[in-house]
Specification:
heterodimer; A: about 110 residues; mainly beta; four-stranded antiparallel beta sheet; 11 strands; about 0% helix; about 50% strand; B: about 110 residues; six-stranded mixed beta sheet; globular
Chain lengths: ~110, ~110
């Protein structure tokens, strides 16, 4: 049972480079989201999607793009990496994403921007 | 806006001690409340939840009661184990497709 799979687990970038963090889930969940985790700040929502073809912004969307072409995949793109984007990124999914909806998390992707 | 505030850590306890981690929330509606746990090197996983006032969530010896009058959802465990060492996150979800997390509280349990 794979659940939510994130790749890569670790990545080092130089300022200005672009990259994509991949997220895939095999639970047929409609809702998917991306969070970043920074010390002392908990998890902050970057973008989310309630179904294929539908995405919306969270609390900290600047510098990130997402798309949702299939139910299974929800990639996060960094267009021009900055040191402030050094963080641990988590992808999460939920069967409904509405009231009472438990989130299922991937293991995280640690990104360092030099 | 909606927010979650939890006690700062780290919290260090001896094995078999009583644990309380405080959590309060502000919300415009009637949120569902959650505790998630993150073990080293892993993603978060749901520990327990409560969806309405006075509900008690429980799992693995942990408990938390949804207190609307004090806007609180404190996590408790009667006797902690070394294996409970982790980071604990309080969270709320108001039905707007956004789950809001507290800053997290790191727990160390000594043998």
């Amino acid at each position: 049972n794979a659940g939510v799979t994130q790749t890569p687990k670790f990545q080092v970038l130089k300022t200005g480079q672009s990259m994509t963090l991949q997220c895939a889930q095999d639970m047929n969940h409609e809702y998917m989201s991306w969070y970043r985790q920074d010390p002392g700040m908990g998890l902050r929502l970057i973008h989310y999607s309630v179904g294929a073809g539908i995405t919306d912004q969270g609390e900290v969307p600047n510098g990130y793009n997402v798309s949702r072409s299939t139910t299974e995949d929800f990639p996060l793109r960094l267009l021009s990496a900055a040191p402030s984007q050094t963080s641990v990124y988590f992808c999460a999914s939920s069967p409904h994403g509405t009231r009472g909806g438990e989130l299922f998390f991937g293991e995280g992707s640690r990104l360092t921007v030099l | 806006g909606d927010s979650v505030t939890q006690m700062e850590g780290p919290v260090t306890l001896s094995e078999e001690a009583f644990l309380t981690i405080n959590c309060t929330y502000t919300a415009t509606g009637y949120p569902s409340l959650f505790w998630y746990v993150q073990y080293p090197g892993e993603g978060l996983q749901l520990l327990l939840k409560a969806t309405k006032a006075d509900d008690k969530g429980s799992n693995k010896g942990f408990e938390a009661t949804y207190r609307k009058e004090t806007t609180s959802f404190h996590l408790e465990k009667g006797s902690v184990q070394v294996s409970d060492s982790a980071v604990y996150f309080c969270a709320q979800e108001t039905g707007g497709f956004k789950t809001i997390f507290g800053a997290g509280t790191r727990l160390f349990v000594k043998a």
